[in-house]
Amino acid sequence: xxxxxxxxxxxxxxxxxxxxxxxxxxxxxxxxxxxxxxxxxxxxxxxxxxxxxxxxxxxxxxxxxxxxxxxxxxxxxxxxxxxxxxxxxxxxxxxxxxxxxxxxxxxxxxxxxxxxxxxxxxxxxxxxxxxxxxxxxxxxxxxxxxxxxxxxxxxxxxxxxxxxxxxxxxxxxxxxxxxxxxxxxxxxxxxxxxxxxxxxxxxxxxxxxxxxxxxxxxxxxxxxxxxxxxxxxxxxx
Length: 237
Description:
- Helix content is 43%, strand content 13%.
- The protein has 237 residues and is α+β, with helices and mostly antiparallel strands.
- A six-stranded mixed β-sheet has the order 3-2-1-6-5-4.
């Protein structure tokens, strides 16, 4: 079980009533402060989270968060919730899950590092199994500057990863791995793989003492998704 995400065989307990209540609280914040159109905010406010959550398996929410969020999105579509609002439902669900997963994940990482169990550099989060959202090079990290750190936005875990390796398929062919960035901003880049066409947004930190927040960098690097989708950066089959 060493290579399986910890939550896949030891999931924390998540209560449906608590999860739904957190979703409602987060929904109001997203509607008020998320920059949604009036139409999308109205559609999101009409979502019955208790009804959606009642159909879901909360053990799956902890053992495989990505599958759970996928199911939540599917249920939203089945209830004919408009597309934009349905994706907001999934985002709210992710944020609500993190409330319960993050503290447990931190405790797991602390214990695993004590017994040197965080060194197998997996492609997915070693705690909850989710796909990494960001990579970081430099700064304070478990790699001590020799490689990269990957970050899971679902449970907040970060883990060491090789510098020359695709964070999506694991390829270590340097000829197929490239960095792209917006002119004038070398600190925020796309790490692109020709083999799988996957990419990960990557932050380069020269000053190890400067303040750093993954949550802030997720917003700052969102513009890089447009670069990654540009046809000239796509591998030709």
